[in-house]
User: Fold these one by one.
Assistant:
Number 1:
Amino acid sequence: MVAEPPLPPTISAQLKHLLFHSSLPFRVEQIWSGCKNSRFSDRFTLLIPFCLDYVKWDIVYNALFPSAAPDIVFSPNDEEFCPLLPIIDGEGEVEVVARLKKSFLWDWNGKDPSRLLKLVEEMRDLYVQYQRKRVGEIDDARLKFEISTIFSREGIEVCLGAGTDKSEEVKFVVPLLDIDLNKHVHACPWKQQQKIYLQAIFPVSRMYSSAPSAPRLKLVSSSQLKDLLSIEDVKLPSWVDGMCMAEYLPTLEENLKIQVIEALASIGSRRRFIEALVPKFGRHLEADPIFCRRATFLAVSGVFTFLVHFSLSTQFPKQQPILTLQSSQHYNSQGAPILSPSLNDYPWSPRWGDAEMTERLFDFIVKECVNFKRYCLDAVAS
């Protein structure tokens, strides 16, 4: 497969600025050229984050005039989304000031690397409004009530789609908790702002129902947040018959806030535990300095040398660490060090202090390393 030529420097600078400086996780799916045998590519497919999913827009430049403004080709499923067409007033006349004059396209400056990001963010904001308008026009009394009671909340996104049985449904995505999680994590490694969302999916019903079914509810966050809090472990409050989201959200956010605070406090608990291991095991070879989820120590029993890997969950100390022993002297047929199975069948109580936790773990490993050495010898001999 022949690789596509590179983007011209002007266009490349704009794309790099967008990907590096955006607060949203934009992604590039493909880059290609509009002309055969061209020195440069001049168009690419951009994945636009929206409603916990992505929509695809093609950004089309002209390699012969790289400083000219690009065209944007929107998804074929959004034929009615025409954000830059002139506005028609009530008498059928085109307004003097068209939308284009209000857009970042109007005074385009190709030498400004921030222009593409501003343009795409502008189009995305208009797309959010377009989807809201679509949902607002649905003839469903329940959805109209949900919209009227919750749309004043900042950051909500909605979209109309089809379920697995091809029936219409509306997805609400609601950002939760007015907490800057990035600022609460020391030496935070996250580039983008971490958020937790409630996804609520309502079926579209054209008929009034006195007891409409509960929406499908799910908490969603970025995969990066799992080092702090496992969203899958958060139990959602029950949805009571006749309830709406405006009633549901306060209880959900109150419960979630408590668990986030506990998760942040758990970082300190894990750090103190790892530090308490040092007097018994010596200084760690490796350790996670930010979330304190992992640590590795070197241990010796006679002439047998091995590593002890500690894996701590976000539920520590309620959940005990998982231990894995790794020989530094025995290798399998593929040349990889021999590892023990995961170990968590040892005495543990979250009420013990760090010193007692460490003492009990040390005693367990002193006994377990004998079994592990035998396990290694059997593995090598087989």
Number 2:
Amino acid sequence: MGGGGSALRVCADHRGGINWLSLSPDGQRLLTGSEDGTARLWSTADGTCCALLQGHESYVTFCQLEDEAAFTCSADCTIRKWDVLTGQCLQVFRGHTSIVNRILVADNQLFSSSYDRTARAWSVDRGQVAREFRGHRNCVLTLAYAGAPCMEEAVAGGLLVTGSTDATAKVWQVASGCCHQTLRGHTGAVLCLVLDAPGHTAFTGSTDATVRAWDILSGQQLRVFREHQGSVICLELVNRHVYSGSADRTVKCWLADTGERVRTFTAHRHSVSALKYHAGTLFTGSGDARARAFDAQSGALRRVFRGHAFVINCIQVHGQVLYTASHDGALRLWDVRGLPPPRAAAPKRSLSRLFSNKGIFPMPWDRTQVVHIAGRLLTL
């Protein structure tokens, strides 16, 4: 196992914990959203802060970085669009009546989920609500989008999938705003989801310690992945494998098409809070304040990255650098050269975006107590 080398750079400009970290599609910039109510743009070339994004009136829960614009959402019930060159706020999206948990930009639309029990679709250009998706009985935590090219003619406008603390996921027709299917089966809050859009399949993780696969067109539950002993906090879907990170301190790898468990990644001393697959290596972030690199095929632990003081909320990888963002307020850059190369050709990117629950619940309590998320959610 490789040793835990020191960080290449420590960026400690934020005055509060970092809730989310987003990498631009071109890989040139990073965006962090913080408890201090600000977001910051960083250069991946040298790790310097390029711009400070100020304007939110409460903590930033989540962010997404595109090549030409940055998007942030906040506990102040708003979403903001920013110019990535100047840091100027270009648009404020108002309409939610409680904390905005998650945003997703796709097909020139902005999707959002909120504690107000709704999800919404917005026009990116006009900043106006185009659709409201109402039907969940509790807060909407996470969401994913399947674009029109992947869908049948009946749902040509694409589908939005949402997960909620009401123990359901819902599939919505974006064009009409109507609920297409309700995915029932979980007995606890749906904390995370990941989508295989071409295969019309959603994978959901829950406080009931299971991962479930669903056909989003028919609403049928396809299979249940049972072996975790704690809440499933984060999911990653890569090359027909599902990786699930849990409060039981493990990551499990499953065959997406059969539900068979093929591998368990151990060594974590607390809940697994973040996952990222990159070039044959599975990177994890944990409530024990450490990031780890595993050989994705063998499950062997290759390296431990030590230096953060609190839970790691999000991780990204670009080139030969690992980026970790923590509730301690620091963004750390780590050299990942020297890790064993993959044994077989790996996909250039995962089938879908990573949707984990970290960063959705910024609260004043110690974020290292990830295992208590379930109890808090179910009392909302």
Number 3:
Amino acid sequence: MSKKRIEWIDVAKAVGIVAVVFGHAMTRHGTMFHFLYWWHMPIFFIMGGFFLKPIVNNDWIGFFKKRIFPLLVSYFICGGLLIMVSHFVRGESWSYTLFYFVRLAYGGRTLNHYLSVFWYINVYLLALLFTSIVITYVKNREAQIIVAFISLIVSTSYKHIYFLSYKYLPWDFDVAFIAMFFMLFGYLYFHKIQEFVKDFWVIIPATIFTFWAFWMQHMDRFNFAFFLKSKIIHASYHHIAISRISYITFIPIIVCLVVFSASYYFCKFFPQFVIKPIQLVGQQTLGIMYLHKAVIDIVDEAGYQSAILETILALIISFALSLFYAFIKSKVKNSLHKAVS
């Protein structure tokens, strides 16, 4: 593992993916369910902006080869495999299965069952592209911040846009502008975040606020629902509706800062033999993201309804399959390299 990796970021990714899996395994949509959805997707978009850089000399071909194309390949390979697994496990017809490949290309909210989380990679790729365009051509930092807020305000100002006969845009195109807000935040404030995670004057108030918001949600005095995929956003306090933008702007970011800080201090005080396995999970979040929903659904169909058991099994199996995929991918690359040589 590269020495340049920042340990607490990998740990934060691991915490985020555990939250995603647990959220999908839960059947009771109570306080904890809503709390997880406040931040478990925004945290990945924020971290996606940490190491972004403007495109030098307009080398967009290099950008696509390095950042976009590998994710596209994994999207279609994993998606295709899961469509076939779903066909045999769920007993779907061939017409349904073949049309699902069309839905895989269309992406977004048309995907369900084993592929219901694949919207994330659609939105992530689009947000990556949009954010890279902004930081490349909008040089002024203040202007970048304005763009981030405009994208958030416009993209949350309506419920749906119809495209042809579908209720939703291909690849959840409009959701990508909400994701871009978080990705730009990660890009613009990464250095500040590195300072904040160590600063008790920031983290203690943020932690207190997080616990307060969780308790207020539990007591039904505070109501914040933030489901990024479906753009379902509710915001009220004491049943008085307030600005959804203010909730989206502050609550996910504050909770993410608490997670980042907890990850930082975990890495600071725990020994390496404890940190490394969690860090390795954080490095396989994409594979786990792709595969965990299929595992949860299969375990569900087998008659096991425990959210904790489903979460553990989904993490272990998805993690193992992700490592296996990485191993096969490296073998294929090495073979191709030797053949070319």
Number 4:
Amino acid sequence: MQAGAHLVDVAMRDFHPPLPVAVGFSGGADSTALLLSCAQRWPGQVRAIHVHHGLQAAADGFQVQCEKLCAAHAIPLKVCAIDARHAPGQSPEDAARQGRYEALIHAAQQVWIDAQGRPLSPVQSMALAQHADDQVETLLLALSRGAGVAGLAAMPSRWQRAGLEWFRPLLAVRGQALRDWLTLRAQDWIEDPSNTDTGYTRNRIRAQLLPVLEQAFPQFRATFARSSAHCAQAAQLLEEVAVADLVAVGVPPRIKDLQSLSQARQANVLRHWLRSVHATTPTAAQLSELMAQLGVCTTRGHRIHIKVGRGYVERQGLVLDWYNF
């Protein structure tokens, strides 16, 4: 029953973050296993950050569980309360995720003190507890939305943001192995009641699709992870091509230089320009319409004015411009 518990220790042996490391700690099984495993390896070099979303009555209980566990293991803890309500047109999951990342960054960058009020060394890295099942769910969600290679790359195991090194050391470990690891240590955890709410797409995938995949393809977690890794490599290559092409076409991009590119590179550089310069992302239909207009833009009087992302792309003489006012 608990044969997979050792996989947690195997994964953690390959985890070498800059210290001190902060752990995003919800009180659930996944983050409890990650926090205790880190504290076991690096005593005195681990911090915990709990984000109180305030979206359900059980949230106060999550905080109490986190405070008790951190006190028992002498792990410094910061609790951050956020307003995770979603804006119109935004999914609840996206709103909660964005709020959570902002809170983690803010807490990590604050001054930390120990139980005696003495200052501690600044946090250098952040560890998150997503595991192999979470990675599969992310990939299936991306597939259901028709995502490109960047979306199919799913969740990275390591990246940089806001001056911190970020890690997901458990992406090769299935969720049940984390629970087995805790059970062997007689350690309890909080079960989030929302995890059984099938109104959330992730929960439907977990409850309905993963068991079927387990039966049909027992090794699906490993093979799906391999496909995501291939997509991550492809996404990196596309990004490098886009950076070079944007230098060639200019900022803002010159229409004639865009027209000299293949359709694939034209789409790639337009997406990159809109995302990197204007922080907006076109839909597939918007990008297709823009490229169609570029293809027939052969006269001085040809007008281009297309809704793209949060604003509009417009022809300005020899170049394209984007605005949202």
